[in-house]
Amino acid sequence: MKLYVSVDMEGITGLVDASHVDSSRHNYERGRLIMTNETNAVVNTAFASGCEEVVVNDSHSKMNNLLIEHLHPDTQLITGDVKPFSMVQGLDDSFKGAMFLGYHARASVPGVMTHSMIFGVRRMYINEVEVGELGFNAYVAGYYGVPVLLVAGDDQAAAEAEALIPNVTTAVVKEAISRSASKSLTPAKAAELLKAKTEEALKKEVKPLVPPEKPVLRIEFANYGQAEWAHLMPKTEIEKGTTIVRYEADNILEAYQAMLVMTELAMRTTFC
Questions:
Q1: What total number of domains does the chain contain?
Q2: What does the pLDDT look like over 36-66, one tens digit per residue?
Q3: What CA–CA distance (Å, rounded) separates 147 from 120?
Q4: Which residues bind Zn(2+) 1 (predicted)?
Q5: What is the pTM (predicted TM-score) of this model?
Q6: CB of 142 within 8 A of CB of 116?
Q7: Would you state the torsion angle of the CA atoms of residues 259, 177, 167, 212, taken in this order, to the nearest 10 degrees?
Q8: Which residues make beta-bridge pairs with 236?
Q9: Which residues are catalytic?
Q10: Is 60 annotated as a binding residue?
Q11: Residue 74: is its pLDDT beyond 80?
Q12: Does residue 107 sit in the same domain as residue 68?
């Protein structure tokens, strides 16, 4: 079996605020070590369970957080920025399953460090389905016929995954108290949980989350200036009286890249 693992950071055990996930802050080095060890808990179990190939994609911020020298030696690591498909770079139909580790819930809902790509996004939709990073990435996996077998993060990310993906296995490593506080397992206990959940997930039948054939992407921004910047993307329109930018895509891959471009443009907005 060939397994794909996308690893974000906000949903990792014990990490609760920017000091843990921002490379310029004092807790970051601790955070990336915990992130690496948590990834190993899953990867080691996958190899021990018979997976022949495991590809890990570092999916947080500049995407160079995981400490490659500490990973299982047979791991293949996708690292660095810029990636044409960001959090799902390298995912294709050769994989039998995908796992999302360290994931958080979407913007505008409770959960630890919730957001959707950038902090200027309030909501994202694929047709009428509201999605965050988790849902959008699951749709890309589904485009290739790849099921998402496991989602690990806080309780709110787990609930979001279970609502989107029938029969998915979830691993709750912390419970949200607020957006910057949680009741967390220790890394040692989280590793035990992830080992057990990875073994469970590899045995279950999960259907891919198949995206619509010609998806309509709609992104609601917090500020009209962000919508104006995003609207520089060709083929977009701002829905009248809103901060929602709409894009009609030929397939989910095009929608995903449009989302990346629109959010990158929106980050240029200033608030003076």
A1: 2
A2: 999 999 999 999 999 999 999 999 999 999 9
A3: 30
A4: 8, 10
A5: 0.98
A6: no
A7: -20
A8: 247
A9: 115
A10: yes
A11: yes
A12: yes
